[in-house]
Backbone:
């Protein structure tokens, strides 16, 4: 299991943008909302993605990118009709790296939020996409990550 404030692992996967994409493509540039979902046919996953797609401009305004990792093969991901990158993890290597099969007997899903340097601020693991944070909460995490930028002001309240 990843720990908060740890750097999220680097990876690159085939995407619906026609080129492989991954965490390093956004490092130092964008905060990330990373979703690890079952596949593009999963009803709960599609509902979550529709909610995020409807508010995608708000993520972009916060200098955040949404990356979605699914188990579909690259050919299925190529036509994914979303405004954000959808990545194919057909062999499940990145899923295992991020989720480490944390829910026994089930294929888990996860939501992660990082700052532009890759530091993890949110990690939610569940058995279904309906249990993950919705677009509103993910936007709050994107805003929180954006406020952690040292150039943007005081990153955290001082203790004492």
Residues:
């Amino acid at each position: 299991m990843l720990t908060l404030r740890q750097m999220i692992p680097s990876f690159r996967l085939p995407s619906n943008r026609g080129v492989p994409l991954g965490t390093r493509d956004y490092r130092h540039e964008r905060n990330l909302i990373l979703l690890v979902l079952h596949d593009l046919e999963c009803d709960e996953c599609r509902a979550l993605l529709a909610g995020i797609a409807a508010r995608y401009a708000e993520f972009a305004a916060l200098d955040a990118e949404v990356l979605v990792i699914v188990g579909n093969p690259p050919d299925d991901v190529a036509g994914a009709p979303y405004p954000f990158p959808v990545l194919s993890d057909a062999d499940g290597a990145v899923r295992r790296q991020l989720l480490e099969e944390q829910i026994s007997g089930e294929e888990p899903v996860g939501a992660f939020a990082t700052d532009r340097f890759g530091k993890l601020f949110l990690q939610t693991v569940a058995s279904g996409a309906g249990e993950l944070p919705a677009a509103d909460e993910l936007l709050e995490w994107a805003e929180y990550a954006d406020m952690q930028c040292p150039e943007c002001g005081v990153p955290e309240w001082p203790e004492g």
In short: The chain has one domain: 34-152.
